[in-house]
Records
---
Amino acid sequence: MTSSPHLSDAPAPPPPRPNLAFRELRGQRSPGEFAAAVRRSAREIGERVSCDARYIGRVEAGEIRCPNYAYERVFLHMFPGRTLADLGFAPRSVVRGRGSRPMVPAQHSPLHDPQHHEESDVRRRAFMTGMTGSTATVAVAALAPFGTAPQQTPLDRHPARAGVGAVEEAIRRIRLLDDRHGGDGLYRRAAAPLRTAFELLDSGTASREVADRLQAGAGELAISVGWLAHDSGRFDDARSHYAEALATARVAGDEALEAHAFCNTAFLARDAGRPREAVRAAQAAARVAGRLGSPRLLSLLALREAGGWAGLGDQRSCERSLARAQALFARGGADADPEWMSFYGEAELEGLEAQCWSALGSWDRAARHARRAVALQDPHFTRNMALYTAELADDLARAGQPDEAAAAGGRALGLLRDVRSSRIEGMLATTARVLLPHRRASGVSAFLTSHAESRR
């Protein structure tokens, strides 16, 4: 496929404005030395970030306008008393397209120049629409469950180079929105940037370095879109996206991407009622990941395998996998931990173990782990908080504790005001059915009424 003639005719936007404030904080340290300091600070507060010299360079170049939540916590820990704005970053609401752009007077810091906000959004919005004409409809807002009306903007003169940053930004954006709102409502809109990413690859106009980054980004984006399909109950679509990511990883020889694709395939297979496939996929992921130097990744893969064994009713194999997951998790974070694993902390470890015991019918044990997951979860992962609370409600209901189950179910329903996830909604529907024989209890009755209203 050749690149569209419209693309070569469009004027290129100016480059990102450097983050001078962040560069000043680095001082005399090299980007690599500063990245090592970031990783040390992350370990001090129990965070996991895969920070390297390249990441620092992208921040200082202005390519990363606002860090993800994990990096935000690390930076604010490193520089107490400062805000993200003090570090030269744009407000998250602006980056996410949810707020109006501040009209900063010319004498204010160039780090908050509205022209910089505009040009950066132009390239990202253009990418996320696709390459279908001389102009493209702004689609960043469409990825969010709320936003401003679309506008029109020209595409970049060099789509491959601009597309790399846009692909990586799209991945971060999708993960951020999923953390907050779940997969329903995001999946259809997220499919457009995925198509464009592979079109950019097919154009063959990029240098080898850009093509490698684009290939990795396209694969990760396929996984992100696949997860949105998975979470919204579109299992066949999810399977197709994960297979696409796996094929991309194999072509590129990208072991990290291959492990990620197998990891998600194992999770999907468990949820789709194919537990033996879940075991095989998790084991395949572990074989690849064993060369990547990330005990935390191996821990998550052991949990994926445990979920498959639980689905097969093999408690002994499940317990072995759980023990391996806990031992690997206890080794702590490493520089090689993938960025996409920012969700995997103690709460997720407890939540996935709860799901294993639930599949094995050990309801009391499952409820204990689900309760820990809720207590440990970082509140900004709204979707996971809703998931663990729904898991707790179901485990308590099946363990013969209807009042506590109804209370947890009510809390989960409250969280679903901001989260759209067919998976979580299905769990609560099952809990409601289990609690029906106890509907005369006041707490249970209130939950059942609220649940029925939420479905309407």
---
Amino acid sequence: MTRASRSDITRRRLASQALTGSITEPAQVVDRMLAVQAQDLRWAKWAVAVRAPGSTSADIDTLIDSARIVRSWPMRGTLHLVPGPDLAWMLGLTTARLWAGAATRRRDLGLDEATIERSRTVAENALSGGRELTRAAFLALLERHGIGTDGQRGYHLIWHLAQSGTLCWGRQLDAQQMLVLLSDWVPHPRQLERDQALGEYLLRYLAGHGPAPLTDFAWWSQLTMSDAKTALAVAGGQLNTLDVDGVSHLLPQSSDLGPLGRAAPGRGPSAVLALPGFDEYLLGYRDRSFAIEPENLTRVVPGKNGIFLPVLVRGGRIFGTWRRDWQPRAITVHPAPFTPQGAASLPGTDRALHEYARFLGRPVQVLPASPTVPAAP
């Protein structure tokens, strides 16, 4: 075991998360991260592209439309982008627990097993052979078969069919994704035995998020600690351990413990990054104090309502938020650091936000920075 400082962990996480510019292909980003939170698809695309400098929104669209990366609910009941071949084995580990946890909600919505299985039959008959439907068209189809979709029933039927490996989101058409059969969309999934899959899960998490303690992996994956310990038993021979204040932080042996390599231009130690809302740099850990002071967390999650704002990062530390406003002919972005910034720091923020503009391929006006107002206690 090697002793390390908190700043060591922060610097190494920047590298693991591909935020030092070491990756140029966006598909490799998702391979590295394994899962990128994606309930807001536009933010998820930027989460991938910011880790592969020079990538555009159209590049990410191509990966989604080709099934190279797939949007579904692999864990935590939340939409993520994952490598297409890996989705099936991830569902195999997470579905049973999520299904059990949703039992009360199913009962409240009147979704018994018979109704879900009827919906599955409708979906398979309608979508087999590579066919696709919009969300609205699929819900209308269920209604025509006597399956009510009012309220939240429609959403939960789609969620249950996706969680159990029948549906996933496919190509994009007119600013929406189509529903498809997972078996058609990803015809050659990876097949892993359960213990092998657990070990792979931990290794892939640490490759894209490490160093991190085992408890962070259990939180992120929502596996039980028993499963997390099995994963550690399987993968432990391929891991190194860093001790930080008595807490073991794991990382793959393939992650060099020596000095970190040189960052790409614009991604050095003092570079500013404009990360999207719901970014894995913050959401990927139970303990978020390595990235942000606890007193500032409510500025990123106002009201603690689960909505994570886009963040500005310098040297691995979150120092502010930013917002985007979509107008008919232009987009404006507005940085909001937690404290007033000196003139020397402004070019870095401006560069990071213009990198986002290049990703969009649309005109973006960067407004002057202004400090945020502290959240009320």
